[in-house]
Design goal:
Structural class: mainly alpha
Number of strands: 0
Strand content: under 5%
Helix content: 55-70%
Distance between the termini: 42 Å
Shape: elongated
Order of helices and strands: HHHHHHHHH
Number of domains: 1
Number of helices: 9
Largest sheet: none
Length: 243
């Protein structure tokens, strides 16, 4: 192990509730999966995911509520990890960007679109003429920031896992998820130019971020389990001797 890696004590362990919150955050971020049941009229191939939570859509509170729950819980996971785990530079950076991801997810919920451009022609015309609210315009900022912070969080936590010899799950999968998320984020530019496939690409992006949260939860769980095993007292010589 390199000299700058953590010692045998590892990064530490978080309480069980932090791990549970990370799993819930991952699940609540996938509310778009309900669209086939609640919003079947929206084009899942070309329509923005954000259109599901547009203010004039009937179930917008379900979708924006999912983003809000994910944002709040992710911030708690970030703060809980920063408080209970070792604050080595790369790890601290990763947890900080995970918290910023949560802030931006709350921003997505707080600043929804006014309407669904791919579903309503009048909405698309208002959008092109810039006759929409600040919330509608600012939503693109928060959505972009979510992707950027999510990619940086996964990448830096993965690099921390490799550098300090922590979190095998993040060391193996974190950087791959970050790379895939970045690739799909860039592909949205091509999709916007072509005017098709944007909906599918965005749904894949959200799925990758949810998988990233689940990977973080698994890494934290594995460390807690390892710490619990290390804390158990070794059996005495008498206990080892057969009757």
């Amino acid at each position: 192990m390199d000299a700058d890696k953590a010692d045998d004590a590892g990064p530490g362990a978080v309480p069980v509730w932090v791990i549970v919150l990370a799993v819930i955050a991952a699940a609540s971020y996938g509310t778009f999966l309900l669209e086939h049941l609640l919003s079947p009229e929206l084009d899942g191939v070309n329509g923005y995911v954000s259109e599901l939570s547009a203010s004039d859509q009937p179930y917008h509170l379900v979708y924006s509520g999912g983003d809000l729950v994910t944002g709040v819980l992710t911030i708690i996971v970030s703060l809980g990890s920063l408080r209970r785990l070792r604050r080595w530079p790369l790890a601290t950076t990763g947890w900080a960007f995970l918290g910023l991801f949560g802030v931006c997810a709350i921003g997505d919920a707080t600043f929804p679109l006014d309407c669904a451009p791919s579903l309503e022609t009048w909405c698309a015309l208002r959008e092109r003429s810039e006759n929409v609210s600040f919330s509608h315009e600012f939503h693109s900022v928060t959505s972009s920031a979510v992707i950027i912070c999510g990619v940086i969080a996964l990448f830096t936590l993965s690099m921390a896992a490799r550098r300090y010899d922590w979190w095998p799950a993040l060391a193996r999968w974190g950087w791959l998820l970050a790379l895939a998320e970045a690739a799909f984020a860039l592909s949205t530019l091509l999709a916007m130019y072509l005017g098709q496939w944007l909906g599918i690409i965005q749904r894949v992006q959200i799925t990758i971020l949810s998988l990233g949260l689940l990977t973080i939860a698994w890494a934290l769980y594995a460390d807690r389990r390892a710490a619990g095993r290390a804390a158990r007292p070794a059996p005495s010589a008498r206990e080892k001797t057969p009757l």
